[in-house]
Structure formats: C-alpha cells, structure tokens
Design a protein that fits this description.
single chain, alpha+beta, Ubiquitin Ligase Nedd4, Chain: W, 110 residues
Amino acid sequence: MLPVNPKQMQRVMEQMGIKSQQIKAERVIIEREGSQIVITEPQVIEISMKGERSFQITGRVEEKQVVKEEDVKLVIEKTGATREKAEEALRECKGDIADAILKLQGGGNE
C-alpha cells in the first residue's frame, strides 16, 4: 500500500464534501440497558457529510454493568448491607435481586 499524506487526504475528502475534525475528550460513555461501554483516553473524530454527522471513536474500552437505584435500595432494605456491598452483590449476581439478597445473608453460592 502506498503511503498517504494526511494533509493531502484531508483536501481530497473536503473536495468530496466530507469534513472531519478531531474532538478533545477525556472519556466517552455509551449507555446501554443494564451496562455502559466506557472508552478512556479516546481519540474522537467527527465526520460531517451531506448534513449528517458521525463519530469515530478509538481508545481503551471497558464494559461496566449498571445496577438500578431501586434495586440497590431494596437490597439494602432487606439485608441492612452498605450501599457498596449491595451494589457489589448485584453486580456479582448479574442484577438478580433475590440472588444478591441471599448472597448477602450468607445463603448464596460463595
């Protein structure tokens, strides 16, 4: 493959009606049902073409499970556990409230 001059490539893209610019970001979070994809140290490029905007993101990717606030409160209420312990149990039990309660009460699979 031939080496490509980035400035030359930028000019060609602009001639085709494609504009791109780098966006400074510390972190990108994509929220999904039940989890988040967190991208740290991202390189974000915004691409505009024919009135549409899209983003290209690269960086360190980590997926985190998100627990619902009402689930945390219920586990705390039923077990007397701290918020941290309740959240940890819910994550370990993949959001299953009954399993999290049993785990904290000593009846779960350890």
